[in-house]
Amino acid sequence: MAEITVRVNGTERSLSVDTRLSLLDLLRERLGLTGSKKGCDHGQCGACTVLIDGRRANACLALAVACAGSDVTTVEGLAGDEELHPLQAAFIEHDAFQCGYCTPGQLCSAAGMLTESGPSAVTADLTEDPALTPEEIRERMSGNLCRCGAYVNLVTAIEEVAR
Ligand code: FES
Ligand code: FES
After folding, report:
1. C-alpha to C-alpha distance for 12 and 88, rounded to whole angstroms
2. pLDDT by residue (tens digit) across 31-63?
């Protein structure tokens, strides 16, 4: 066991955790933050994506003990007190989901992605200004699977916020 303090959605949480506990299980099972979804639990689907110190990460692959001292943002912490995060509003406006299971991960991943700079390796050769193109967004979001196939509307929503 280890004693850790981690800031989750702006609130410091001090806990005693098994050193094998994943960040995803910490969030869902210990802190009751079930917005982050467990799809594959193997880093393959992106349903568990959260922001760790502003960078997107698969919470199922992160050890909770390794997040001691970090700032973690889950989908529950994206919105302000009074209004939705612009991505949340755009997802609703553009109907960027069906069942919604992948949506928390898509939102956190998109929020992190929009703060990243430079083109991805795959699209760098495809366009002169890759930052905001649908191709670039698709590539950067390729770690987040949607079994409902809402990809077209997802890209449209993210592109609108990126602009
Ligand atoms: S649950 Fe983490 S990547 Fe699938
Ligand atoms: S909306 Fe159902 S998995 Fe993406």
Report:
1. 25
2. 999 999 999 999 999 999 999 999 999 999 999
> What radius of gyration, in Å, describes the C-alpha atoms of the chain?
16
Within 8 A by CB and 6+ apart from 20, the residues are 63
pTM of the shown model: 0.92
Q: How far is the CA of 127 from the centre of ligand 1 (A)?
A: 31
109 CB near ligand 1 (under 6 Å) = no
Specify the ligand 2 atom closest to the Cα of 148.
2
